[in-house]
Amino acid sequence: MEDFASHQAVHFTSPHVRAFVARKSKTPAASNSWLKMFGMIFQHGVDKGELERNPATGIARMKEMAAGAKSWDDEEIAKYESYWPSGTTARLALYLLLYTGQRRSDVVRMGWSDIREGCMLAVEQVKTGTKLLIPVHPVLAQEIDQIPKGQPTFLATKKGLPFSVHVFSHSVTRWVEKCGIKERLSPHGLRKAAARRMAEAGCSPHQIASITGHKTLSEIERYTRAVDQSRLARDAVLKIGRGSFTKS
């Protein structure tokens, strides 16, 4: 346990918080995670009237250079698909993440009770509360149809119970490793891959957001940086050139 846990919350000042957060300076994401944790704890004390102020307020987050979870590329997706056959939990997990574009916290909660009109999936995002109606892709529908109607969630452990987010993430990591994929891929990387694929298919940012639930277009831009630039450039030149490239 970290030593800051032994100190009284009322004795914390901003310099104390900065000092503790600085311990993670070599890993900016972890440092920012600690800062967020401190902020939530102290704000709770302020809201209850036990603290006069939140000492984490006003402390700048560290700049994170990493792009976050890696977006799965098409080769990795194909390798995963070829390894895990239809009807397996691993294949269903892939399709739920890839064809809904939702977070792992939303995917583990999906079940038959969320199906509307036979072809729409109702989602209320855990993180944002955003409510969405997403068409069920035919490929995903084939996997869902193999799930017993009485099962509480589409994804279930070997004991037939819903996955926790933590266990689900570790399961996906294990399924990826069994495929022989060397990259460390996560469920969130499939959310990025879903946005990338929609962008490559010519979907507008607003169309992508209607699936992913993002509130701002800048967030969509972040998720679609992995778009095949050469493919988009070719499409753009073809449009300008009225369907053909200029020959030298």
From TrEMBL:
Keyword DNA-binding among UniProt keywords: yes
| InterPro entries per UniProt | DNA_brk_join_enz (IPR011010), Integrase-like_cat_sf (IPR013762), Integrase_catalytic (IPR002104), Integrase_recombinase_N (IPR010998), Tyrosine_recombinase_XerCD (IPR050090)
Q: Does the keyword Transmembrane helix apply?
A: no
The segment(s) forming the Tyr recombinase domain are 67-237
Residue stretches in coiled coil = none
Entry keyword set: DNA integration, DNA recombination, DNA-binding
Q: Which GO terms describe its molecular function?
A: DNA binding
What domain of life is recorded for the organism?
A: Bacteria
- What's a GO biological-process term for it? DNA integration
One Pfam annotation reads Phage_integrase
- UniProt family annotation: Belongs to the 'phage' integrase family.
The identity of this protein, by name, is: Integrase
The species this protein belongs to is Acetobacter lovaniensis
Upper classification of the organism: Bacteria, Pseudomonadati, Pseudomonadota, Alphaproteobacteria, Acetobacterales
